[in-house]
Amino acid sequence: MLKHMFVTGTDTAVGKTVVARALLQHLAASHFTTVGYKPIAERNLMTAEGLRNHDALVLQTSSSLERPYSDVNPLLLTEAAAGCFTGAAVDYEAMSRGLRHLSALADTVVVDGNCGWRAIMNDYRPYSEWVIRERLPVVLVIGIKLGCISHAKLTAEAILNDGLPLLGWIANRINPGLAHYAEVLGVLNHIMPAPKLGDLPYLPRAEQRDLAKFIDFSPLNIVAQHTA
């Protein structure tokens, strides 16, 4: 059983959270108990319940296991701190405690990262250091756009060079007007060092849809093992 998977992307705004929703829904349809996890979030909005992050709310509603918001997103950066790289300490231990807590409750925890693989935290350290420390298997989201082939190859190489398993990659059609979409997928199928696990079409309001059917875990055989 795959206890964790970390969702990273070739860049920011490539649809990591939408893909995380699809993963959660697909695993739940295969009778896994699932929960999404956003260890640290920025771009938060004040609501009647307090600060909330949009991506974390999507993960919360996409999980088969109902958990309070504080479980799904333990650390929220204020707008004043987000992206300012002040050198302030990041509570990585709180991120790890949250992961262990959810891991004890669910079959699989889908962890939604921030930006790309080498995203820099406020303390100037890459987010990937925490992922490496936790030994999380990685799913790479490739937003299909100009330049994505180079970004995908470089990101995959970095993940593997960091000693982590790259479970596979998922194409997300973020630009419906992009020409030669099939050709881009053909190149990625040929050069990527891990299998394709899904192909999400361009969908308005994708974060409100059932996306399970766009994921294919057959190359990993984990769903078959779980339902056997």
TrEMBL record:
Pathway(s) per entry: Cofactor biosynthesis; biotin biosynthesis; biotin from 7,8-diaminononanoate: step 1/2
Binding site for ATP: D55, N172, R173, P201, Y202, L203
Keywords in alphabetical order: ATP-binding, Biotin biosynthesis, Cytoplasm, Ligase, Magnesium, Metal-binding, Nucleotide-binding
Endpoints of the signal sequence: none
Listed transmembrane segments: none
Keyword Ligase: yes
Gene label: bioD
E.C. code: 6.3.3.3
Enzyme class: ligase
Pfam short name (any one): AAA_26
Taxonomic source organism: Candidatus Sodalis endolongispinus
Family of the protein in this entry: Belongs to the dethiobiotin synthetase family.
Functional description taken from the UniProt entry: Catalyzes a mechanistically unusual reaction, the ATP-dependent insertion of CO2 between the N7 and N8 nitrogen atoms of 7,8-diaminopelargonic acid (DAPA, also called 7,8-diammoniononanoate) to form a ureido ring.
Keyword Cytoplasm appears in the UniProt entry: yes
Cofactor(s) in the UniProt record: Mg(2+)
Name of this chain's protein: ATP-dependent dethiobiotin synthetase BioD
Catalytic reactions of this protein: (7R,8S)-7,8-diammoniononanoate + CO2 + ATP = (4R,5S)-dethiobiotin + ADP + phosphate + 3 H(+)
Lineage of source species: Bacteria, Pseudomonadati, Pseudomonadota, Gammaproteobacteria, Enterobacterales
Active-site residues, as the UniProt record annotates them: K38
Cell compartments where the protein resides: Cytoplasm
